[in-house]
Task: inverse folding
């Protein structure tokens, strides 16, 4: 049964991230600000699901956009999945993470495959 690991209102901590190693997770909400081809910025949901192999922690003190240092360094977490994919967990916007059983994960993958097939059939 699906179990909430991190609600949207919870603060992301290293304890939460490290507790996910070895678990099947689903992040239905992982909002990031991205740059469009025109140079504007927009928010995008970079959702993902998979089994967590590990994570990286980065502490960045420099603001690349402004070319200055932050008063306090910012901490970023990247999770790595067993399929080789990696995802940055947002700390600036909404992030929600659920723990899944292996069966729930497999069911989610099948549902997403069906959605993709349905949407590709509609485009033709």
Result:
């Amino acid at each position: 049964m699906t179990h909430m690991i991190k609600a949207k209102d919870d603060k992301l901590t290293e304890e939460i991230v490290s507790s996910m190693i070895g678990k099947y997770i689903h992040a239905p909400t992982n909002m990031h600000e991205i740059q469009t081809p025109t140079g504007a910025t927009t928010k995008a949901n970079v959702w993902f699901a998979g089994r967590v192999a590990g994570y990286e922690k980065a502490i960045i003190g420099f603001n690349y956009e402004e070319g200055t240092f932050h008063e306090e360094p910012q901490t970023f977490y990247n999770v790595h999945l067993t399929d080789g994919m990696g995802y940055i967990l947002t700390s600036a916007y909404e992030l929600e993470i659920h723990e899944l059983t292996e069966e729930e994960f497999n069911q989610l993958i099948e549902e997403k495959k069906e959605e993709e097939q349905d949407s590709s059939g509609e485009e033709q």
Observations:
- The first helix runs from residue 14 to 19.
